[in-house]
Amino acid sequence: MSRWGTVALAAAAVVATACSPSAADDAAEDETTTSTTRTPRITDDSGRPPVTFDPCYDIPDDVMNAAGYDANEKKPADMPMGSHTFLGCRYSGTVHIPGVLARYGLIIMAGNVTLEEELEKNGAVATATTINGRRALREVGANGNDECTYVLEADFGIILFNRLYHKDHAGPVPVDEWCAGLDEFVETIEPLVGA
User: Which residues make Cβ contacts (< 8 Å) with residue 151, sequence separation at least 6?
Assistant: First the structure.
């Protein structure tokens, strides 16, 4: 039976139990069966695992605000592809250094592709690493200048943290600044991801 089929059966069992006279007694005896898993906003028919981490909902706003991103202005940035799915969230940085930095733009995307598929796609700019012991990739300039991406492995696929440095000056941003501090930010978010 598919994972979605199992979820549907579990939901039907909960409804049937809630209608029985002893539902309150059963719930009081076993509160550990309560699930907080929510149905993903987007799914696909690829047979890949459903994306169970939603960056717009599973990362607390206070964590993002403390990291220098405006959680009040976050915007969904989903990418349903048919053969795979990405649930995304776009943030703007609040840090502004006149003459140096206008702000950072950040997109966090959780997708049901594998770390190996991501490495095959961006292997020319990717370096294998770990974040809090979790397998990861660091990609510098995969889509152009002033950009850095960290990719974490998850049980359903991967989570990408893509940051774009919006400079506030003429001339290039040194490559060693593209990823500056992003690893520490990803280390902060990693425990929220689950397995």
Answer: 115, 118, 126, 136, 137, 138, 139, 158, 159, 160, 161
Nearest 10 degrees: CA dihedral of 35, 63, 87, 160?
Answer: -120
10 Cβ contact partners less than 8 Å away, ≥ 6 residues apart: 35
- Contact (CB, 8 A) for 92 and 108: no
Instruction: Give the C-alpha distances (Å, rounded to integers) separating 96 from 69, 100, 124.
Output: 11, 8, 32
Quickly tell me which residue has 């990739």 as its tokens: 137
Residue type, 43: T
Cβ neighbors of 61 (< 8 A, separation 6 or more) are 71, 72, 74
pLDDT of residue 84: 83
Q: How many Cα atoms are found within 13 Å in the side-chain-facing hemisphere of 127? A: 7
Which residue is listed with tokens 């502004």? 96
| CA–CA distance, 133 with 156 (Å, rounded to integer) | 17
> Taking the CB of residue 36, how many other CB atoms lie within 10 A of it?
4
pLDDT band at 12 (very low <50, low <70, confident <90, very high): very low
- 21-30, 64-73, 76-85, 140-149: which has the highest mean pLDDT? 64-73
